[in-house]
Amino acid sequence: MPFFEAVRLAWDSIIAQKLKSFFSLVGVLIGVTFLIAVVSIVQGMNVYMTDKFAGALIGVNTFQVRSQPNIQTGDNSDEQWRQWQRNPRVTIEDAAFIKERLSIPATIASAGYDQVTLSWQGKVAKQIQVNTVEADFFKIKHYDIAEGRAFSPQEVNIGAAVVVLGSELGERLFGGRDPIGQTIAIGGLPHRVIGVVAKQGTLFGISLDKFVITPITSPARRLVNRPHIIDDIQIQTASPDQMRAAMEEVTVLMRGRRGLRPGQPDNFHLESAEGALSGWEKISKVLFLALPGLVAISLIVGGIVIMNIMLMAVTERTREIGVRKALGAKRRDIMAQFLVESATLSVTGAVMGIGTGLLLAFAVRAFTPLPAAVAPWSIIVGVVLGIVVGMVAGVYPARQASRLDPIAALRQE
Predict the structure, then answer these.
(1) For each of the chain's 413 residues, which pLDDT tens digit applies?
(2) Whole-angstrom Cα distance, residue 208 to residue 249?
(3) Is 144 within 8 Å of 198 (Cβ atoms)?
(4) Listed residue (96, 6, 2, 1) closest to 347, CA to CA
(5) Does residue 55 sit in helix, strand or coil?
(6) What stretches of 150-272 show up as alpha helix (H) in DSSP?
(7) Residue 64 and residue 220: Cα distance in Å, rounded?
C-alpha cells in the first residue's frame, strides 16, 4: 500500500472515531505539551533572569564590591554568612582607592541605600528606596531621563540637595503636575526635584519605579549610612572578559588595602550578575534534567495505549488483511501499512500537544511578566518523538497483522 494511502486510511480512522482516537492520543499529547510548555517557560525565564533580573539588580558587565552578599543563592553555609556579617563595611575611601589604581577601563560609582518617607504638600509616600550615589550611577544603570536631567559630578562634589525620581513615585506625588523644580522632603530634609527616570516596568510583579536618587553627598545621605560608609562600589566594564579581569584586580587591590595575608579569606564580597544568576541556573538545570523523565513517562503511557488500539484494529480488520494478502500483498506491505497508521496516530497527538504547549506558552507570556520564548528545537523534538513513539508502538501489532494466514483471515467474520 502506498505511503499516502496508509496515512489517508489512518486519518479516516481517526475522524470516524474521534472520541476513541482522542483518548488514544492523550498520552502523547500530554508528553509533548509538557515538553513544549516547560522548555518555553524555562527559556523565557532564562531571558527574563539574564536581561531583566540581573540587569535591574546589578547591571550588565557590572559587579559590586560589598561587605556581604546582597543576593542569597542558597548554597552558602551559615558559617559563611556569619563571616560575611563580621566583615568591615565598605567605605568611600575604598572606592577612591580602587578608582585610582584599577588599570582596566571601568565606570565606577559608590552607592548607599535605605527605605525613607517622602512628602510633598501633604502627600506622603512611605517605604521608598532612596539611592545616595555618584553621578556615574545613571550610566551604570542605563537610566534614561524622561523629564528634566540627572545630577552632575559638580552637584555631587558640593553636596547639592537635588533628587531624581522614579516614574511611579513622580506620578504618585505630583499626579499630572510637572515635578521639575518642586521641593520634596526626604525624611524631613528638603530636596529639589531636577529629573524623572523613564519607566522601568516591573520585576516579578514588583515595581522598579518607586525610588529616589540623590547625590551621595546630599543631606539625605545622613539617613542612609554613617559618614564615609557606603553599601557598595559599582564597577562596570565594556565586556564580560574585562569584568572578570577587573574582579581579579579589585580582589588583589582590596586584599592589599586591608592587609590580608596569603591564606586569609577575603573580608569583602564581589557580586556580579553571573553570581546572581547561579541560583537560577541550578534550578533550570534540575528542570532540564527532570524533563526527559517526565516526558518519557507520558510518552510510554501514550505508546502503550496506541499499541492497544492498533492490536484492536488488527482484530477488527482481519478479513481485510486476508483479502489484501490473497490479492498479492506481502508481509512487508501489511507491516508498513500498520506502522504508518500507528505513526500517523502518534504524530497527530504530537501536533495537538505542540498546539497546546504553544497556547500555554503564549498564555504565560500574556498574563505573567515572563517572556515565555518558544524554542524551535522543542517543536522539532515533539514531532520526532511522535513519529518514534508511533513506530515503536506499532511494531508488535504490525507483526501480528503481517503473520496472519490469509486463508484463516478470510474465514474470520
Answers:
(1) 666 777 777 777 677 777 777 777 777 888 888 888 888 887 777 777 776 666 666 777 889 999 988 766 556 677 777 888 889 999 999 999 999 999 999 999 999 999 999 999 888 999 899 999 999 999 998 899 999 999 999 999 999 999 999 999 888 888 888 999 999 999 889 999 999 999 888 776 778 889 999 999 999 998 998 888 999 999 999 988 899 999 999 999 999 999 999 888 899 999 887 766 666 777 777 777 777 777 788 788 888 888 888 888 788 878 887 887 788 778 888 888 888 888 888 888 888 888 888 888 888 878 776 677 778 888 888 888 888 888 888 888 888 888 887 777 676 65
(2) 32
(3) yes
(4) 6
(5) helix
(6) 153-158, 167-174, 240-257
(7) 22
All three cell numbers of 189: 530634609
Q: Model-level pTM?
A: 0.65
In angstroms, the CA 410 to CA 252 distance is 88
Considering only CA atoms, which of 51, 102, 71 is closest in space to residue 245?
Answer: 102
Number of helices (H), then strands (E), belonging to the chain: the values are: 14, 14
